[in-house]
Specification:
about 375 residues, mainly alpha, 17 helices
Length: about 375
Amino acid sequence: MTTPLGYLLGVGAVAAFFGILERQQRARPLFKYLPAVVLIYAVSAVMANNGIFARNEAIDTVYATAKGNLLPAMLFLMMLTVDLRRFLALGRRLLIAYAAATLSIMVAFVTVFALFGFTQKEAGLFAALAGSWMGGTANMLAVGDAFGVGDGAMGYALAVDALCYGVWVAFLLALVPYAPRFNTWSKATNAKAAQSPALGCACTVGPRRYWLLLAFALLTALISRLTAAHLPLLGTTAWSVLIASLLGLLGAHTFLGRLNGSQELAQTMLLLLVALIGSRARFGDLSAIPLYLAAGFAVLALHGALLVLAARLFRLDLFSIGVASLANIGGAASAPILAAAYDKSLVPVAVLMAVAGYLTGTVGGLAVGWLLQLLAH
């Protein structure tokens, strides 16, 4: 594929194929353990490394333009679901659990990075992974782009994310039967009470809604990139990410926040972004992956230990810290599953925690990245 149109059609076809396949009932067992974003990246990368996607000036320009504008547009749409008033209404115990989960992930990343003696080269990679484990894949791409993580290195982050996440989900689900014993040990108070705010309808996006949301998303991309170009210190990409997130957070409190369909459109942009990044990946030495995996599992182990300590100190129950952890690391795709294992009425709590990660994931990932750069050899 040597022309910009052929390149975009190829990238779009890969994203569309796995995006559609993921929604098929028969394919769900596969995607339960291997997310669509990982498969999209892998297939795009294989195509790139076998010369199917050409590298020339015209395609380089299209790639830079598409990626540079899709990222802030996607973040804006994702932030439209973050209603801080509803999140704060969760109550003191759940907010403490969520804060403990987020902060423990940040501490774990900084500690493990220092213990493993990683260099400046790995700082951006682990910052991107931290963004994912405090938010989601969208936050990973935003943080990775802000720190200039290469498209090939992003593949390592996606691989560690998928493998560690799968083990962590299974571990937290296996702990559910032991909740009464844990709650007795932690002296949890009022362990069964949890507010379940109404989440509203999940209607399918219609054409008017779709084009209105797309128009605002692209306008946000334009504003954030133009503004970021004139701001100092953080760099254009970091400012663009933060401005788009802020505009989305403000938009959540307007009529845009009441429009259904923003997440469907954001998910489409996310799949396209992953396919774009994969199409530029050039893999070299893969021998570092076991070390990165060991570091990832070490982060999860330290995160879990700190959460257990927080549960004892603040008398938190296993549901609160488990769902708070998975809302960060797994996001809206898996946190509700864990919540339902305790009680189906608690699913909205998990969803609200996961949605809040769209905000904390980007900001927290950037903060972790700056600390890792200071620690790097």
